[in-house]
Amino acid sequence: MGKALEGVKILDMSHVQAGPTCTQILAWFGADVIKVERPGVGDITRGQLQDVPKVDSLYFTMLNHNKRSITLDTKNPKGREVLERLIKTCDVLVENFGPGVLDRMGYTWERIQELNPRMIYASIKGFGPGPYEDCKVYENVAQCTGGAASTTGFRDGPPLVTGAQIGDSGTGLHLGLGIVTALYHRTKSGKGQRVTVAMQDGVLNLARVKMRDQQRLKHGPLTEYSQHGEGIPFGEAVPRAGNDSGGGQPGRILKRKGWEKDPNAYIYFITQAPVWDAICDVIGEPGWKTHPDYAKPPARLPRLNEIFGRIEKWTMTKTKFEAMEILNNYDIPCGPILSMKELAEDKSLFATGTMVEVDHPTRGKYLSVGNPIKLSDSASEVKRSPLLGEHTDEILREVLGYPADEVAAIKAAGATTPPKKAAAE
Ligand code: CAO
């Protein structure tokens, strides 16, 4: 089986998480991702949160599978020559430097187009054009400025960030879609184009239903929010809704058997209207099927706390598997809270390649999350991340076609090694 993006060359100047997430997915689909790293240092995540001393961190290894690494000092004249040859050779340049970094290096969009009119130049920044465009941004800043934090958490508590990396990885996924769209467009136009995604925009896109609710507020209370049933008036902005469902079918996280000791003994339970009768039977309230206070969804909305309280009395008597088995028999939508430990041990996730075990020369075996996107006719194997500069020679020779004497000259000029410190320092 071939790979969907075979033949596509990506000049990967990305770092940390947002850009690497994007290029990793492209690499899994077969693109040749050439990661340009600063000599001696590399992507800063190589050394961040290291669990094993002097070994590339899991942060780096889990975000940079299937890539090749070349070290290149892009501020060294010979290094710039090599970078320009890479720009001429590759199809896509991906970067998520701070605002203006690539321009300061001398590679504006205009210059890149001069060097390679077919180049797709893809960038992630914290904000789009506007008052904050020059700001550096990390994950939680994006979650806060993109509307996610103000709508996450409980009404009477502070805004919360989520553990899912919607600012970094979410934006990386948006960028990946932009890149393949631009590649498709290029097959017709023959030209490259700029692809930009701001992290604020990516988070806001993922928080779309909350912008829906913001507009609904003008026409009355948000009746599916618990707050409505509790008689608490709404303010001007969408409030935090705890674990209320964001859709039209009310849902909650409820305790299950063992909750007193296990922090994850909870289950998400959705009172989907079509299975309401089954829910009433399962929890032992058959009278609710016809009672005017409970039979129809609008009558239930002001009583959600009472209803979920009753359902919880039932879920608290069941383990995760018991509850799942009983509820699924009736097509009642529900999902246990799964811990990272449970997911790391879930054989079915390994069977589909969503979880994988990878071998690394200095780290040994480690677990990683594989490609969550499955294509029926494009293989997607997960290969270990590269060591810093592991493929420098190979890329200079095989990708860029430099003969041995020129490779030696590039190295002698210090283009692939850290700059020598001034003697006075
Ligand atoms: N050779 C020589 N210099 C190099 C180099 C190389 N191969 N690669 C990078 N550099 C230099 C750049 O030229 C730049 O130097 P100058 O500031 O002197 O121009 C510097 O390294 C990188 O700057 P930076 O602003 O990108 O890095 P930072 O650590 O200060 O900031 C971050 C990090 C993430 C806040 C910033 O890159 C950013 O805001 N990126 C956009 C938003 C984003 O992606 N955030 C998500 C981060 S988590 O995924």
Describe the protein in words.
- The structure is a single chain.
- The protein is of the alpha/beta class.
- Helix content is 36%, strand content 13%.
- It is built from 18 helices and eleven strands.
- It has a six-stranded parallel beta sheet, with helices on both faces. Strands 7-8-9 form a three-stranded antiparallel beta sheet, with helices on one face. A two-stranded antiparallel ribbon has the order 10-11.
- Strand 2, helix 2 and strand 3 form a beta-alpha-beta unit.
- It is elongated.
- The N and C termini lie far apart (55 Å).
- 37% of the residues are buried.
- The model has no long low-confidence stretch (mean pLDDT 96).
- Oxidized coenzyme A binds next to helix 4 and strand 5.
Unreliable residue stretches: none
Structural class: alpha/beta
Count of helical stretches = 18
Radius of gyration of CA atoms, rounded to a whole number: 26 Å
| Unique bound compounds | oxidized coenzyme A
Calculate the terminal CA-CA distance, rounded to whole Å.
55 Å
Strand content: 5-15%
